[in-house]
Amino acid sequence: MNEYNKKQQFIIVRFLIRLFQIIIYIPIQIVFIPFAILGLGLGLYKEMVISKRLEVSFSAVQALQYRWIMHYFETRHDPISVAFTKNFPCESHFGLWAVMGPFIITQKLFSFRTRLGNLVEPGFETLDSTAGRRVLEFDYIFEKYIDEVDQIVLPGSGFDLIAQRYTKDKDVKVFELDQEKTLNVKLDTLKKAQIDYDWITYIPVNYDKESWDEKLISAGFDKTKKTLFIWQSVSLYLDRSIVEETLKKMSALCTKGSIIAQDFYSKAFLDGSISKIAIKNMNMIAKQGEPWKFALDMKDNPRYKVASFLEECNLKMINMNLFGEKLEKEPFYCIVEAKRI
Hints:
Helix content is 51%, strand content 13%. The protein is an alpha/beta fold. Strand 4, helix 9 and strand 5 form a beta-alpha-beta unit. Helix 1 packs antiparallel against helix 4. The mean pLDDT is 88.
């Protein structure tokens, strides 16, 4: 059998397998329809109404949702986030299962994978595959430096449980900062879910009236110790001046060998020229009181432009992951590692 015939047979077999998977998926999806309607309504109510009532960040709730999805689609094992979600007042474990259940079941039983169950290779990210890759990239940064630093600081930590995942039983101090009401909900949920957190120092901050760096030092942060700052998915919601001020404060707190990991979106993402979906998401999140504000120009020579911005903040870029770089399209997002100049 020649090579051409082998390829044709492979294509036919792959098509038949895919067809079988879809045929199996359809009746499962039909059975789930009433549950999906109920679950979607319950989920949206908790995410939009309850979170607003509790004055909890809608975007922080969404970030937790991605970790739940990745666990059940077997792209990132995370039972802690699942246990947290089951007890979290601003998200519905039932709702997520009701909506995602058919995809999860058919993947587990018949290897029917959708985009939710796949992770693209670094450099090939698109908007709909960014969330999963972002989680894994910050995981990698955590793993990379966890045994090299004495302190870890997570400003605007929200409901991310990356500290529980990597720092338990480690000889490292951990500080998480966020709004008081966000931290109150987080701590209450951790208790209900019976998730340990006693080695982590939680610092409530009223950013309008208090200096977060002064509160950090008062809580036991040591400026002479090597530190890892993880500032994830926060700058997008701030004015440029506040982003610059915050990064300069981080730089001033750093001693030699310290690292600041940070992500940035592009102006093309913010103005919607990358995707109309981005505009819809921006409008939805803005209605929840969290408008997108800050982005960097990444159209031409994005590495130079991001590095230049960091230099203005007294930081030197040492590594950059530019999402979608290998697709030869305008960049829309990056994750950088930097150190004090």
